[in-house]
Write a structure and sequence with these properties.
Length: 480
Amino acid sequence: MNAQDAKQLADWGFNVIRLGVLWAGVEPVQGEYNYTYLSEIGTIIDTLAAENIYTIIDMHQDVLARNFCGNGIPGWAAELGSSEAKLPFPMPANMPLKKNIDGNPDLEACLSHDFIKYYFSGAVSKTFQALYENHFGLLDSFVDFWKLTISLFKDREYVLGYEIINEPWAGDIYSDPRRIFNAESSLLEPFYSVVHAAMRSVDDEKIVFYEPLTYDVWPVGFDENPVGGEEYAARSAMSYHIYCPLAGGNTTPLVLKLACQGVDWDFFHQRVQDIKRIGGGGMMTEWGSLSNSDLDLAELNHILRLADDYLVSHIYWQYKDYHDITSTGDAGISLYPNGVIQDDKVKVLARTYAEAVAGETLVMKYREDKNHFTLNYVPNALPGAGAAGEGGDDYDDDAAKTVVRVDRSHHYGGRWIDGIKVDVSWNGWGGDVTCSDDGRRVVLKHWGDGGGGDDDGNDKPEVNVHITPCRRFRDSKCTC
């Protein structure tokens, strides 16, 4: 990840990335921290920040460690955690894996199986259980990893927050199979409570992200926000992933691709209802993992339309492959397989959206077939706002700004397109429209009281925004 990558992501409209900061990288030897690794992480965060891109620091893991054909936690922690297992990895699964001279499974042998199968190894289950319950002091060491990491990055403005652990498993499912269904309440809630308290001892302000179980295909088992309850609702978010198990690859039958539309809707609806029940925020921090085929591009568009409908923030998996050994699918799921950009996929992802709304969002929709964007919102009632937006001491200029991200190269340029046309119905509000110098943003600023509603801002009229390509010889004037 360099400055060119960051600029390119920003040009496409991306404003947040999820960056894996692995415990294995920070503490490769027990009790010894790798500050060179952490310094490189800081460089990546700063490079992205220069393009106004936020970073979620993610303790990413898949099947925990290289010991288990995965990644995430240090080898020494995996050895300790799995020492209580009755059978060696990958048993009870019958997948013979030869070992390298370092004692880890041969990488080529690892890649010959779907990594998800390794979760069912007794060694992996035991290690998760050991982490959750602090066997061998693993939870203590995990907490120390997080406290050190947060202490180094908490003051960086463009660090959005910290994700405790990616796709947690249900612990030792062999000693108690009920954990397959109740581990969120019986294991993850107390685990998250301990880690969250330690995080907040270092940083009480940034967002802490938490995940349901790896296989989050039904309503989550948390009864309340597991990272601080109601007190921290405004500084916590459920991190969830939506992948249709029927999608992926050029050979998937069309009927299964179509079936994914129903599966996707169910997943969205389920998670949104979970978040309303539990409290706090939410973000779809993984989705996609699809190829550049026409069917997969249609699936990407379908998920993005659902995200707009439910007003869900999201992060695509993945930007580049970076020798990833635990993704479902080949390198074609990234934006740069074999070092060549998949521009059709980028065009789908680089859609127009509202980055910030100065009020309550009612509707946000983008028609990818015509590059038409619609945003309806009820503006904030701002104290001190004058007739032309010139407020007194109480007027907050930034709180009056709604920002829409646009990718001119993919959607608002071409042979017969000269730019962007913005039509706004202010409906009693005062307002104006400007375009950022870099061409990435349309900024709408409102003022006044909307000419209706009560003093608390209730029942105010909505503002309607329409953004379309500005067509040469048809539109008399382009906005941007």
